[in-house]
Write a structure and sequence with these properties.
heterodimer; A: alpha/beta; seven-stranded mixed sheet; globular; B: globular
Chain lengths: 207, 466
């Protein structure tokens, strides 16, 4: 996984609540067996018309925001399906940070596994950043995970919080499986103990 | 320390506690399907890792599969590739699998409880948000992403932070014609689509106790639509009677020992919840959604709300966008909205009880002219059971399509899709824009309400179909 330390980029405003993962990447694009290549389908329903042509009024079809590295939205971003294709599509498009008042749990988790940073900030601050982002390429926003601050184009710094372990792993680009493999003895012990405590627990035989 | 049902199941599965409260949590059951697993198996292969515990894992195909005759395979090349990839992976890694033409194949969340693979007190995960379904048995069951699928395959554990406890208590008894689906839609309407974020919801109260397992599975299934990763119901006699005799459930003396353990899972008297919500079952009417979020729900005798009455500007804009997408007018009566398609199926409502409910309305009636109505059983075994009761004939005679098991029109990634502008009365779980196909318009409701809509040709109060 690619580490996330500091990102300075164009932010795209998406002032909408409950942006669900079907909006981020519709199910018809989940038929892939790869992680890459989903960026062109990001927000497909809002981004393209029925003929597959770009809708000029959608933010990511507008000149500066085609290069957006940050997305700013409203409440409950990423609700719905558990599809990790949602952060994969954001990442493939080039968006490595989403700022919103809050996120749905599974999407929030999935971001951290892919080097995408979800930042929770109060709604009124998101709205300030959305106003900033409307200035397009003239208004770059910096997200610094080491210092846990978002810097506005005017230099004002806004602090945010991230769980310590998640932050550490994202800063180092550390793979969770690698971390857990260090606990294999504890897992072995747990399994032995559990077999004794719940011996009735059936195994699933090969069908 | 008095503990909730969630606390007890969580505590029993903690392998290690890390410095910031994150826990390494042991996973008893891992359900795998074709859409969210290929990249996870590929990750294992690249790293030279094995599946740690194949005997705790079960795979099935459901999302992609056509629900028409499948004896000649899957026509659509990308869907076929995904299914074939799963079949290669389960063979290579030695994972138990129910093939497409096996009667046990079906929607993963129907199959787990039906087979006795999902049991009380277990931790159960799947790369699908509706894994919350299995919590109806008293398990801690939640959806995960593909990286976590790989993590569970490799280690049989997950790094998780403990959730908060929310209690949703439904007092009293449901009125005639009101079902578990209406109950959970009313709960989502009350707490909102993010109301359960960060929480596990435990459902309790007289109305929940009175539900059969099918109803409880429907309620827990939609917990995720309230933002909660998991919903749970304490196991009781209804649960034990449901489990006994299922193929993968403990047998004989083991079953008795299991029941003794399961009885201890209920919350301790006086256990504390971070949040409690109480509803009176008598206040719940048959419900139907009008917007593009499951929280946008109203009683069938209600009307489409008016955005002009919303003070908050962004909420007003969101509602205007929804009404434009749904092609509905403020103040319009919900009963009477004409529909093009009826979909009875999905992990929310495709059990035998759901099909009986639909058939009881369809019996002796006809699907309205111009309406396409389809019934998609949740598994091959549900289909066989329905056919043994003659329900297929009742439905077919009424003009419904009787199809093969799968996720079907719930999510628009197999041939069952809405076309742009089509309006569907659906027993599924999400009414998001484009969920059932690009431009499709979804109204969520119960199986009986869906069958009644099929007959009437428009949304209608099932209570007038005695």
């Amino acid at each position: 996984m690619q580490a996330f330390t500091i990102l300075t980029g164009i932010a795209a405003p998406l002032p909408m609540a409950n942006v669900d993962t079907d909006k981020i990447i519709p199910a018809r694009f989940l038929k892939t067996i790869k992680r890459s290549g989903l960026g062109e389908h990001l927000f497909a329903g809002m981004r393209y018309d029925e003929a597959g042509q770009e809708r000029a009024d959608f933010v990511l079809n507008q000149a500066p925001y085609r290069q957006a590295g940050i997305l700013i939205a409203h409440e409950n971003f990423g609700c719905g399906s558990s599809r990790e294709h949602a952060p994969w599509a954001l990442l493939d498009f080039g968006i490595r940070c989403v700022i919103a008042p809050d996120f749905a749990d599974i999407f929030y988790n999935n971001c951290f596994k892919n080097g995408v940073l979800p930042v929770r900030l109060p709604r009124e601050i998101c709205d300030v950043l959305i106003e900033d982002s409307r200035l397009g390429a003239n208004a770059r926003i910096t997200v610094d995970l080491e210092r846990q601050v978002v810097a506005r184009p005017n230099g004002e710094q806004i602090p945010f919080d991230t769980d310590p372990l998640r932050r550490k792993m994202l800063l180092e680009g550390q793979d969770e499986i690698g971390l857990t493999l260090g606990s294999m003895n504890a897992i072995d012990d747990f399994e032995t103990r559990r077999r004794q405590e719940t011996p009735w627990m059936p195994a699933i035989p090969l069908a | 320390m008095k503990r909730t049902l969630f606390d007890k199941v969580w505590d029993a599965h903690v392998v290690e506690r890390l410095e910031d409260g994150t826990c390494l949590l042991y996973i008893d059951r891992h359900l795998v399907h074709e859409v969210t697993s290929p990249q996870a198996f590929e990750g294992l292969r690249m790293a030279g890792r094995k599946v740690r515990r194949p005997e705790g894992t079960i795979a099935v195909t459901d999302h992609n599969v056509p629900t028409s005759d499948r004896r000649h395979g899957i026509e659509e090349p990308e869907s076929r590739l995904q299914v074939e990839t799963l079949e290669r992976n389960v063979a290579e890694f030695g994972v138990p699998y129910f093939p497409l033409l096996d009667a046990r194949q079906g929607i993963v969340h129907i199959v787990g409880p039906e087979q006795g693979i999902s049991l009380p007190g277990m931790t159960i995960v799947c790369g699908d948000s509706h894994t919350s379904t299995h919590g109806a048995l008293g398990a801690l069951a939640f959806g995960i992403g593909t990286s976590e699928v790989e993590h569970v395959l490799a280690t049989q554990t997950l790094l998780q932070r403990p959730a908060k406890n929310m209690l949703v208590r439904i007092d009293g008894a449901l009125q005639p014609g009101v079902t578990a689906k209406d109950l959970v839609l009313a709960v989502i309407g009350r707490i909102g689509t993010a109301g359960g974020t960060g929480h596990v919801i435990e459902y309790s109260g007289e109305a929940i106790r009175a539900l059969d397992m099918a109803g409880r599975l429907t309620v827990c299934n939609m917990s995720i639509e309230a933002g909660a990763r998991a919903g749970m119901i304490a196991p009781d006699e209804t649960t034990f009677a449901y489990i006994e005799g299922r193929p993968y459930a403990p047998k004989g003396a083991d079953f008795a020992r299991a029941v003794a353990y399961w009885r201890g899972l209920a919350a301790d008297e006086g256990a504390a919840y971070d949040r409690t919500v109480v509803l009176d079952a008598a206040d719940i009417a048959p419900m139907v959604t009008w917007g593009t979020s499951p929280e946008t729900v109203a009683p069938i005798d209600g009307v489409v709300p008016d955005p002009a009455a919303i003070a908050d500007e962004s909420k007003r804009t969101d509602m205007q966008r929804m009404l434009a997408y749904m092609a509905l007018q403020p103040g319009q009566e919900l009963a009477g909205i004409p529909i093009d398609v009826v979909f009875i199926g999905s992990c929310t409502n495709a059990r035998i009880e759901d099909i009986r409910a639909a058939a009881s309305i369809a019996r002796g009636r006809l699907v309205a002219k111009g309406v396409r109505a389809m019934v998609v059983p949740g598994s091959g075994l549900v289909k066989l059971a329905a056919e043994a009761e003659g329900l297929d004939k009742v439905l077919i005679e009424a003009g419904f399509e009787w199809r093969e098991p799968g996720c079907s029109m719930c999510l628009g990634m197999n041939p069952d899709k809405l076309t742009p502008g089509q309006r569907c009365a659906s027993t599924s779980n999400r009414n998001f824009e484009g969920r059932q196909g690009p431009g499709g318009r979804t109204h969520l409701l119960s199986p009986a309400m869906a069958a009644a809509a099929a007959v009437a040709g428009h949304l209608v109060d099932v209570r007038s179909y005695g």
